[in-house]
Amino acid sequence: MGVHARTTLCLIAFLLQLFLINAAAQEKHLNITAIGAANGRSTIECWQITRPFDISTDPGTAGTAAQQLGDPTNLTLTILPPKFDGGLHNAPFVQYVAFTSGVAVVSLPDSKEKATIIGGKYGLIIAADIASVSKQGHITRYPTSSTTTALQIRMKDNTPPAHSLLHYGACRRDELSGL
């Protein structure tokens, strides 16, 4: 087989692989635990972000799945001490919270519903129960003897991303397996 034929076959194989990766990425959506609100009360929900994953073309990540999370207006790194009790509060803004380490337990007043968020790969949530949509808010506690770190990513205009409700309650680990 000549050099030209091998080059052509390699190019075809590369394009086929890129097509298959692209097709797989278009079928994947980000599922995320959200603190939402309904009827003036905070809820814990599993959302599926409407926009599917894209294929990155950025240097260093080209060819991998990438999800545009929206237009952030502020990014804050928060360091929470061991056994910190955040108390009952509303989300200050519609925001993503990316727990990079530690554990957060989110619960609702007058309910047994809770979500345990473990920092790291599965540590991304959305907090959208701002005071204009929820009268009481939610409770956040950090029960371990380790520091918890979180990135709070405020969304432009307090607008959550387009999404569908998969179910009430936190997303299960198998629903987050695309991460």
Task: Provide structural commentary.
- With 179 residues, the chain is mainly β.
- It has a single domain (3-176), classed as Jelly Rolls (Sandwich), CATH 2.60.120.10.
- Helix content is 14%, strand content 44%.
- It has one helix and 13 strands.
- The protein has one helix at 3-27; strands at 29-38, 41-52, 54-55, 65-66, 72-80, 85-89, 95-101, 103-107, 114-118, 124-127, 138-141, 148-155, 163-168.
- A seven-stranded mixed beta sheet has the order 5-12-7-10-1-2-13.
- A hairpin with a 6-residue loop joins β8 and β9 (114-118).
- The termini are far apart.
- The model is unreliable at 18-26 (pLDDT under 50).
In short:
The protein is mainly beta and 179 residues long. The protein is 14% helix and 44% strand. It has one helix and 13 strands.
CATH architecture: Sandwich
Tell how many strands the DSSP assignment holds.
Answer: 13
What order do the strands of the largest sheet run in, or round the barrel if closed? 5-12-7-10-1-2-13
For the biggest sheet, the summary is: 7 strands, mixed
Shape: globular
Radius of gyration: 20 Å
Superfamily at the CATH H level? Answer: Jelly Rolls
**Structural class by SSE content:** mainly beta
Any idea of the CATH topology? Answer: Jelly Rolls
Helical content stands at 10-25%
Question: Which spans have pLDDT < 50 for at least 5 consecutive residues?
Answer: 18-26
Number of helices: 1
Distance between the termini: 41 Å
Q: According to CATH, what is the class?
A: Mainly Beta
Whole-number total of structural domains: 1
- The share of residues in extended strands comes to 35-45%
Write the H/E string, N to C: HEEEEEEEEEEEEE
Q: What's the mean pLDDT score?
A: 88
